[in-house]
């Protein structure tokens, strides 16, 4: 008889902003429901695991940061497995699955996970389950949820195989992947295709119906006699008449008690999380009042904290949730009179999960909702499913079931994810829903800091750092009222009265997040091209301030050309840093300032084909750009919007290189990939 193998596996995560960690913890919490036990560790904590001798199945959850780099917490691990002295069979004993997180709005989609995946394969490790690539640009849950759902069967087969015969190890990966690669039509993909693009995955009917089919009960659904228009609150046929495949109800694992009495000192610990209280020493509105967007520059006094930074680094700011929204949430949960109670959080009996580390013991309820939980986050389908059981009205229950169902995915995307709907919006839309506090603590993610690139150089502004941001505006729509971005609205509120306040506290500033690559070249003679429309110009102001000081300190040195391509809507309304940029151009720090204004009318001369966007000016200066990158071995930096600008600039770069070298698009793409690998094509972009 085969020896019994304990159903135990290891979860390793590499996380930059907490998403990979959150998903890894979710898998860990679900393990017990599926008859297994998971140990979990961050990849950075290498004393907690040893893959060189690991016999358990291993599940990796890895995000991507920067220009397709593994997260900071995985860098040491990646360096270790990339050791060229490791033999090709080093991990031949290892069975693993990997979920990679990325964003298709950025270059090198999921490259952090892909880097680890490919290297493990090179060292002989075997998949027991297909690699998943989750896209934050379309919603991580679109891939993450079905990937986790299929993981449990793959693990069961792996445990069974381990218990039956070690000789089946070599065949295990193919066997599992064959089932996972089946398409909706029943045809199978090539068995050698180990990586599955889960955007195209359709779960088989058998998989999706495992005990989860919920048929519509006409007695619970109110008949609508009005014109049928889909909305957050209401569906239309065929969805309103369909049987639904909904996610399994997530198991509760927390017990939350509110106790009268004193609470702990309610601050974010500087020692623990690295945050510092700093003051805003200056604030300037960079745009005119009638500009489409309001851009604000903040000068923060960091002299007492001794925070060293380089031009190109970013700072994390942790802001609170809006006080009015916290108050409304407390009122909606009938907890307003208990907001100052101390919160005690414990695991339910027999639960193998862990109490979320970001929820402090003995903090007040108001503090936790203000500083610890992301109450603005769009509820995931599992959260929506859990809310159903705390909703009294039949039609409201049905609509929530639709929104979390497989059949209602389009409605979920339209009315929840894409609409930036949060928990409070759902509670407004479904008034009979009254979830317990424990459900919020289980499902709301940790309140994450927001990163802002330094728009200054410490050489020119010692003891200070400048940050620039547009005040984000979310217009009113049927799903929610008008509101400002959480952090930009909070920062703007600090300086709204006179926009040049002194000593205004900015309570939570983390030390700079050093950029491993987004800095000026170490050799000042290397030429650079900078592309930064709108607030994307921020890090380049720091670059130019640094270069200006370097030129003053060493007048005999040779400095490479600096080109800046800047764009905005109107020359007279939102030309950020205009005077400073023109000064840089005048004194020779900036060799070429190339600007465009997308909404201004043509001048009196009636310029034909006037450049509208930065990519148009790049095309006009294609010969110079190509020469800098290909002949002079210069560097290209791009900062700003990922969804449109960065993609358009990349397409233009492919065109420029293709024309210059007289090569086709595929070869141009290889050349651009080479620039990325050499860290000479760098991006600091956001969606």
From TrEMBL:
Domain FAD-binding FR-type positions: 273-521
Spans traversing the lipid bilayer: none
Pfam family, one: NAD_binding_1
Keyword annotations of the record: Amino-acid biosynthesis, FAD, Flavoprotein, FMN, Methionine biosynthesis, NADP, Oxidoreductase, S-adenosyl-L-methionine
InterPro entries linked to this entry: CysJ-like_FAD-binding, FAD-bd_FR_type, Flavdoxin-like, Flavodoxin/NO_synth, Flavoprot_Pyr_Nucl_cyt_Rdtase, Flavoprotein-like_sf, FNR_nucleotide-bd, NADPH_Cyt_P450_Rdtase_alpha
One cellular-component annotation, GO: cytosol
EC number: 1.16.1.8
One MF annotation (Gene Ontology) recorded for this entry: FMN binding
Protein name: Methionine synthase reductase
Keyword check for 4Fe-4S: no
GO biological process: homocysteine metabolic process; methionine biosynthetic process
Residue intervals of the Flavodoxin-like domain: 9-152
The protein's required cofactors: FAD; FMN
